Amino acid sequence: MRRALEPDFDYLVVAHNGKCAERLMRDAGVPSLHRLLKCKFGCGAPPRGLMQLSSLWVLVFAVEGSLNLDFEGAFIKDHPDLSWVADNTRKLRNSVTAPDGGAMHETWTVISSREY
Fold this sequence. Notes:
The chain has helices at about 20-25, 30-35, and strands at about 40, 50-55, 60-65, 75, 80-85, 105-110. With about 120 residues, it is an alpha+beta fold.
C-alpha cells in the first residue's frame, strides 16, 4: 500500500521580486499562487489583478554636522522625481553625537518617484 506524500511544511514564503518569483513558481503546480505573481514593469496604475514593479533610484549621502531639518522622514507629494527622504541618523542619535551634543554627521536617504 502506497502512502500519500505529506508535506513537511504548512506555508511557503517566496521573498523575491515578482518577475523572478513568477518564473520560479510557474511549474510548481500551484496555479492560484502563480496567478498572483504575474507582473509587469511600469510607472502608471497597474491593470486590475496584476502586480506592477517600478524601478526606483536610491541616493544615500552623508553630511558633516546637521542639516537641521525638523523631520526624520517624509513622503514627498506631487514631485515628478522624488517620493521619500529620511534622516537615517535619527534612530542612532545617541551613537553619533559629538561631545557637545551636536551631530557629528547625518546620513540621508532619498528615493525617486516611480515616474523618474
